[in-house]
Amino acid sequence: MHDDFDLSVYKIAVETPLIESLPISKHTPNFDVYLKLENTQPCGSFKQRGIGLRCLKAKDDGYTKVISSSGGNAGLAVARSARVLGLKSTVVVPLTTNQHAISLLIEQQAEVIRHGPVWDKAHEYALKLVEDEKSTSCYIHAFDDPVVWEGHSSMILEISKQLPRQPKAIVLSCGGGGLLIGVLEGLKKLNWYSTEVIVVETHGASSFNLMTKSGGERARLEKITSRATTLGALEVAPRLVDDFWHSQFRISSLLVSDEESIQAIFNIVNDHRMLVEMSCSASIAAIYNGSVDELLKSKNIPSGDIVAILCGGSGINMNILDEFKSLIH
Ligand SMILES: Cc1ncc(COP(=O)(O)O)c(C=O)c1O
Start and end of every Tryptophan synthase beta chain-like PALP domain (predicted)? Predict the structure, then answer.
């Protein structure tokens, strides 16, 4: 295992900038907002960190092929990591996956198999492929894997070198919770338990929020109704039940609407000239709409630094942006 996981050495992931945001700080008047630019990772999202480390470990373990069933940013990170590490990759995606996502995977030299009407069927097929080739192929889970969490935690260690003081809060999006657990792992390494961790989801993709109301039990959404499909895990990684209910971490859950997330995409373009997908803009939407400021006030935190993770995402282009334009007022 690579203890010192400087993934940039392997050209898998890069150290990303942390920039001050004056325009976004205006929405939290007593706090300075910094953006961790994970959208500048080579495949466009933070997924490159944890999944890159997972693929590196698969190679160390003697596997020659990695298999994923994510047509989104996780699958793209698998495909890119495999190409860079000289492994083969197969990504099984449901028939509904759009051509934009498939082209990005093919560009990274992945074998793309379109199978089944919904993700579950594609996933089952991917597991069958791994079973058929188990001596050579390794399945890479999008978010529920300790090695993936370890890779994502590198982001927090970087922040500790880039920011002169411990942030009062970290704001991030949550799908299955891989990013969130990675952030918690990083905070643990630094003993930064007093940093508020503000977890944002969209209504309709709110599996973490559901778990926070479950009284300490696992909880499962019936379906995903948000357009932010990248955040659309029906259930978060079970490890988060412990982190939320039984740890020293200070974790809060906020929800934003799809419309607020879409509006935030345009605001980020205007404020920073960067284009991100809805799963990423959702967390920034919670700053733009004042709910992060309100939450910190309710916890009697008077001032300090907030780090918002601009997690990125490849699910956006000019065509999608045009469609979004027609949805906001
Ligand atoms: C851009 C982006 N943001 C956030 C998430 C949510 O990450 P996680 O599933 O690790 O919570 C994802 C997941 O694919 C993503 O691609």
Answer: 15-312
Closest CA to 251 of 309, 189, 169, 158: 169
Please name which of 179, 264, 254 lies closest in space to residue 227, comparing C-alpha atoms: 264
Q: What percent of the chain has pLDDT over 90?
A: 91
Cβ(152) – ligand 1 distance below 6 Å: no
Best mutation site among 231, 283, 314 for ligand 1 pocket (most ligand atoms within 8 Å of CB): 231
Is residue 81 in contact with ligand 1, taking CB distance under 6 Å? no
Q: 26-59 pLDDT, tens per residue?
A: 999 999 999 999 999 999 999 999 999 999 999 9
Q: Which atom of ligand 1 is nearest to the CA of 148?
A: 10
For 231-240, write each residue's pLDDT tens digit. Answer: 999 999 999 9
H and E: helices and strands count for the chain: 13, 10
CATH number at 297 reads 3.40.50.1100
How far apart CA 35 and CA 197 sit, in angstroms, is 15
Instruction: Write down which residue in 81, 115, 139 finishes a domain.
Output: 139
Question: How many domains does the chain divide into?
Answer: 2
Average pLDDT, the chain: 95
As a whole number of angstroms, the distance between CA 189 and CA 63 comes to 30
Q: Write down the pLDDT at residue 1.
A: 45
Tell me which residue range forms the domain holding 254: 7-46+145-325
Alpha-carbon torsion, ordered 283, 245, 235, 178, to 10 deg: 60
pLDDT at 31: 98
